[in-house]
Amino acid sequence: MSKIKFDTSQLPQGMKARAKHNNAVINIYNSGKVMFQGKNAEIVAQQLLPEKSSSTPKSAASTSKKTTSSI
User: The whole model's pTM is what?
Assistant: First the structure.
């Protein structure tokens, strides 16, 4: 895996660094949180983050579809 070059200049307040990598934008905040956005955000996050640190709430991660049928 190649090194990712993070930009640390001209960032919004509260943000430490930002980088673009494989069609995704990675934002790192002063709070310690990391946000992945873009077309390949899920793939990049899975490549870079440890397996156990998934912090996506179940309600946001899964979608349920209600189906009804008549007999």
Answer: 0.66
